[in-house]
Write a structure and sequence with these properties.
The protein has about 110 residues and is of the alpha+beta class. It has a single domain (about 5-105), classed as Beta Polymerase, domain 2, CATH 3.30.460.10. The protein is built from 4 helices and 6 strands; from the N terminus they run αββαβββααβ. Strands 3-4-5-2-1-6 form a 6-stranded mixed β-sheet. Helix 1 (about 5-15) crosses helix 2. The longest helix has 17 residues, at about 45-60. The protein is globular and about 30 Å long. It starts with a helix and ends with a strand.
């Protein structure tokens, strides 16, 4: 599956469970680790876990592999590595603290 289709699948999964402030960073020009980074806020650690689990479920249902999932125990920031797409699911405090959009020197675009 191409990165663009995978990105859309992830965004749909996040929208289904009411992820907040979903943004997509096109990082293909500045790194080789992925084409897109998607950042989303969950309203609680339980919501963060549910969002990440939904992404993993949708990707596996599409017959694709999940390279890794990190941060499930703490659940204030869960990273889901899908190869060409990396998903950061964070509680609001973590998202503000790490400010990944600024870290990557990019103005985020909404994921719609």
């Amino acid at each position: 599956m191409k990165a663009d289709k995978l990105k859309e699948l992830v965004i749909e999964a996040l929208d289904d469970l009411k992820g907040k402030e979903v943004v997509c960073l096109d990082v293909a020009r500045i790194t080789t680790i992925a084409d897109y980074m998607i950042v989303v806020t969950g309203t609680s650690t339980r919501h963060v876990k549910s969002l990440s689990e939904e992404v993993v479920k949708k990707v596996k249902d599409a017959g694709l592999n999940v390279a890794g999932v990190e941060g499930q125990k703490q659940a204030d920031w869960i990273l889901v590595d899908l190869g060409d797409v990396i998903v950061h699911v964070m509680i609001d405090e973590s998202r503000k603290s790490y400010d990944l959009e600024s870290l990557w020197g990019m103005t985020p675009s909404t994921a719609k």
